[in-house]
Amino acid sequence: MSSRSRTLSLILLLIMLAGCAAPAAPPASRPESAPGLPSAPSGYDTPVQPDAPWPLFRRDRRNTGAAPLPADYQGDPPWSFRTGKGIFSTPVIDAAGNVYVGSADHIFYALSPDGRVKWTYPTGEIIDSAAVLTRPGLIGADTTVVIPSGDGYLHAVSMSGRAPIWQFDANTAQRDSYNNWWEGNVTIGFDGTLYAGNTNFNYYAVTPQGALDWVYETGANAWSIAGIGDDGTLFWGSNDTFIHAVDPAGKGRWTKRTLGFIAASAAIGKDGTIYIGSFDSYLYALDPATGKTRWRFKTTDHIYASVALGESPDGTHTVYLASADGILYALNAATGALHWTYDAGDPIRSSPVLGAGPTGEGGAIVYFGAGNGKLYALDAAIGARRWSFDTTPADPELRDRNDLNASPALGPTGVAIGGETGDVWYVPYDYCLHAEDARCSVAPGEDLPADAAGFYYVTPGGTTQLSGDTPTVTPGTILTLRLLAREGGETTDAWVCNRPVGCPADALQVTADPPFPFRVEKSADGKYLHIIPDGFLEPGQDYTLHISAQTYSGGAALGNLQLGGRAAGRVEQEFTFGVTPPGEAFPLALGPDRVDAVEWTRLAAPIPPMMPSLNQIGFDYLDWIMAPVVLGEPDATGAAPAVLWAVGATRDTEGVLHVYPLSDFTLPLAGKVRGDDFILENRDFTMEVTGIPIPFNLLQMRGRLGADGRVAPGASLVADTDALSIPTFGPYLVVAGLANDWYKKLLVAGTFITRRYDDAGGANIRPEGVELAGLTLEAPTGEAAGRVVATLTQTGETPYVFAAHRPAILLVDAETDAPVWLDYHANLKTTASGDGATVELTLPAGTVLPARTDAIVILDVFPLARRPVE
Predict the structure, then answer these.
(1) Cα distances (Å, whole numbers) of residue 519 to 504, 574, 659
(2) Parallel, antiparallel, or unpaired for β 92-93 and 639-651?
(3) 3-state secondary structure (DSSP) of residue 162
């Protein structure tokens, strides 16, 4: 597509997105409440467990996120429980204080009030959403836990017996979609109907017996939990950019379009006003009957979190809003006027919740988690910190994976919250006011400097380093810097020039001393700079970057896309960083019957900040097995060519990692290793991420690999794609402000974890009796595809089940060992026969092969044979 066509497409899209609320439909005649429903002791008027302090995501059917629980300290200590992967779902808490939460490790956990495991319930995929605790007798005789899972099922499980009562399959009413993950938290209506959204673009109503009641089609993923009005109307948002109002029978009443995806849930005020935030960075207050805007409030980044409602007896209600700009806002519920702000310093995706002050003290406390790993408790009246508790672990592997993207839940004696580390945390009410603990802070103000105008180091996991200490990085790293502008204790919205035309020649200049070759990439919002060296930095060397940047502010906001702006000042800064000393030898080796391998896992992509909001658990859940298939000789600088082969993997019931033959991931990563440092990449290929085929221009991983197979802290990753090339969602991402120069490249930066692969999985071991019997090439032309076919035979006593593995062919330049870049996953096919198999690699028309090409035949990640193709 030409640049002119892309610009025209963007203009047409923006015109399309300017729609208003659709007309309201007449109310349904369906019964909307269950008679005789107890409301005591917690005031619930839907059939949740009656005395549970936090039975569902936002506690009640209006999604107020508020509880009357006093913050009385009982003298108990904090605790944490670690699951196998990240947690992004909100815990629910029963009457006894037991905590229930799901993890990306596919397991739903029931934890006792002191953090011990009561029981676990495995599902077939990640769990990214909060459960609901239903009233005894509604589904089962005991309280029932309804668990949404990425396996496509809602699981109704007995709280006492852990046995499934029923499982509802999203395929009961499926549309063509990328997957069927339940990522919309579950809520419950007056009559016991369960409501939840799915990534298959449907919103479902399911009876207490586990049968489909109705399904409502949206235009994209439905992550938002419905708020339920007094008349039974359901209000929720969708990634189709619409807020939907739907009657209890599943008929639409109105829709309201925003200029961004909507993950936040609708909160309903006592007067019926609908409060919901959008990725266009606005909070909307809407008329419940028509969807018309009563007022809206602009933040400086997208809104992922749901609001909390503070409702006072005198009618002076307050809305507590968290934004990915890192700021918590307190707003007048009637007018949207700003009362106060508190800047946590890193993005907030955690939905704030509201609790009462300690008995006898009065007032209210607002709780939320932030991207810096801290759980905050603020005085709800004035926005001063009452206390904060830092959940960041000492473990170096997870220390940079500390985002508290999940939302807190209030229990009888304290706050429960899950985090990116995979930990469930419990912090007693006001613990930090009563205990000496280095993890606590009781300073009322913010942790940011009162005045600042410059760039601060950001770790690959996304934490802004405010201390001013000189960071130390490994030789293969990428450096990310964040522009922070503060004046008089307030954060101002500032960025470097990020428009496609008209940036002055001196708008951004970066030089290095001592010099090294690098390129500078801006984030789409102009608030982050990525310094990407062309190769390895010198071990033990200190470097200074000289940065000269014109900053901008103001301008026009079109959703989360910033247009124009005025010059706000110039930053002249020196930024110094150090490089670690030389490491050891590269720890992975090739052998005749075994190859060293690592598991690659826990991908995080925190920059730009919208990426975790779009796909936080979709990155964290990934498991790959990676092993070298080429290790060349070092050159004069000590750098040697290397090619690693990567395949998708899954764990068995014993926790052992095996190749997953149906995985979307099969690809080479090629580059250089120098000692134990590496820079590896793939270019110009398509890879499916949570089912969406994304055409990558570049995927590059950098780090230092230890002898134990663990990558050192600071491992970095960068990837980019043409924003408009992403199927379905590309235009939305442009309007969301995720593309450099408004509509061009989407660039993502992050980090990952590796560990030594367990040989018990077998992916790195030569299979007994399997041999390469033949290799043929049919060369491609400019008009016709070609192919390489490998014939495999097996003579071992134990049959090799090819369908349970991932055979492959990789083509490399025989002279340089550089791979032939193509989409290997899409172009590989294996056909098993009685005594072997054929592996076929299609070479798309126009594929150019090196003058001398070798084929490496790979079984899982073990390089079985290397032969020339002619």
Answers:
(1) 18, 17, 36
(2) unpaired
(3) coil
Q: Percent helix, strand and coil across the chain, each rounded to 5?
A: 5, 45, 50
Report the alpha-carbon angle 400-404-405, nearest 5.
115
How many CB atoms are closer than 10 A to CB 838?
Answer: 18
Number of Cβ atoms within 10 Å of the Cβ of 15? 9
Q: Which two tokens stand for residue 456?
A: 């601060």
Q: Which amino acid is at 423?
A: D
Instruction: Map tokens 């690809």 to a residue.
Output: 667
CA-nearest of 865, 866, 862 to 627 is 862
Distance CA 736, CA 646 (A): 32
Phi, psi (5° rounding) for residue 433? -85, -10
Strand partners, 156: 146, 166
Helices (H) and strands (E) in the chain, counts: 4, 62
Q: Rounded distance, CA 469 to CA 472, Å?
A: 9
Q: Measured between alpha carbons, how far is 689 from 668 in angstroms, rounded to an integer?
A: 16
The residue type found at 187 is T
pLDDT reported for residue 1: 40
Beta strands 807-813 and 144-148, pairing class: unpaired
At 691, give phi and psi (nearest 5°): 85, -5
Residue entry with tokens 């008929």: 251
**Least confident residue range of 32-36, 253-257, 544-548, 641-645:** 32-36
**pLDDT tens-digit series, residues 687-745:** 777 667 888 899 999 999 999 999 999 999 999 999 888 887 788 788 888 888 888 88
Number of other CB atoms surrounding residue 473 within 10 Å: 24
What does the pLDDT look like over 128-144, one tens digit per residue?
Answer: 999 999 999 999 999 99
Looking at 216-294, list the stretches that DSSP marks H as alpha helix, in order from N- to C-terminal side: none
pLDDT at residue 390 in the model: 98
For 464, which DSSP code? Answer: B
Give the position of tokens 């207490």: 208
- Are the beta carbons of 555 and 543 closer than 8 angstroms? no
What local confidence, expressed as pLDDT, does residue 64 receive?
97
Spell out the SS3 assignment of 198-235: CCCCEEEEECCCCCEEEEEECCCCCCCCCEECCCCCEE
Please write down the long-range contacts of 216-222, taking CB distance under 8 Å and 24 or more positions apart.
Answer: 216/244, 216/246, 216/250, 216/252, 217/175, 218/242, 218/244, 220/261, 220/728, 220/729, 220/732, 221/183, 221/197, 222/184, 222/197, 222/198
Question: Do the Cβ atoms of 414 and 76 come closer than 8 Å?
Answer: yes
Q: What is the phi-psi region of residue 108: left when phi exceeds 0, alpha when psi lies from -120 to 50, beta otherwise?
A: beta
Q: How confident is the model at residue 2 (pLDDT cuts 50, 70, 90)?
A: very low
| pLDDT value of residue 175 | 62
> DSSP alpha helices (H): ranges in 629-681?
none
Given pLDDT bands bounded at 50, 70 and 90, which one contains residue 565? Answer: confident
- Using DSSP's 3-state secondary structure scheme, residue 187 falls into strand
315 contact partners, CB below 8 Å, separation of at least 6: none
Q: Given the DSSP bridges, would you call strands 66-70 and 353-356 parallel, antiparallel or unpaired?
A: parallel
SS3 of 45-75: the string is CCCECCCCCECCCCCCCCCCCEEEEECCCCC
* CB neighbours of residue 511 within 10 Å: 11
- Phi-psi domain of 345 (left: phi exceeds 0; alpha: psi -120 through 50; beta: other): left
Q: What digits encode the pLDDT tens for the residues 356-398? A: 999 999 899 999 999 999 999 999 999 999 999 999 999 888 9
Q: Which strands, in side-by-side order, build the sheet including 242-246?
A: 227-228, 234-237, 242-246, 252-257
